[in-house]
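From the shared-data thread, chain only:
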Amino acid sequence: MKIAILTSPNQWFVPYAKILNNKIISSELYFNHENIIKSYDIVFILSYHKIISKEYLKKNKHNIVIHASALPKGKGWAPMFWQILEGNNDIPFSMFEADSGIDSGKIYMQRVLKLTGYELNNELRDKQANFTINMCLEFIKNYHIYQNPKAQYGVESVYSKRNIEDSKLDINKTIKEQFNLLRIVDNENYPAFFELDGHRYILKIELEEKKGGGE
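Structure, as tokens:
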């Protein structure tokens, strides 16, 4: 099989795209779909933020996207983080064929990532990425089972894009009540904050490393 991996440059998934590239022998890694000249049996489109025209999609047998929701529920932006905010720790992932619609293609497989409820942003990203990698490898290994996708069915819903203001804490709520928000904030790019008497205060969260005990 001729396989390519497509992801956006300069973003969190790049190191994981390189891991997947190394795991799939003779695969090729791209950071812009317009650089894909050849045709492939499979192009894994993972954490890629440009719109790809039908012209490019038609060149390949499979153009595969993995989205962290039970499609058609949870289309759109940051589905795993929105579900964590809703209190969910069993996060469904859908592998589907890319088409001209928004997360609307036929589904190859669905799996569930089980979280503990205590992971913070970096660990959440790591689990999300490795779960995605494993789904890609499973698809290749068991291609004869998954090669014929099925149409989506059910009630559609769409998540909006998250921005810096979505990391705002409510000073009238407890930390425990807002722990899921603290789990998903990015300490560098969109840290948690609260406002008091016209002032904005930034909060950063990290898990304390356990120190080795004595005798």
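DSSP finds six helices and ten strands in the chain.
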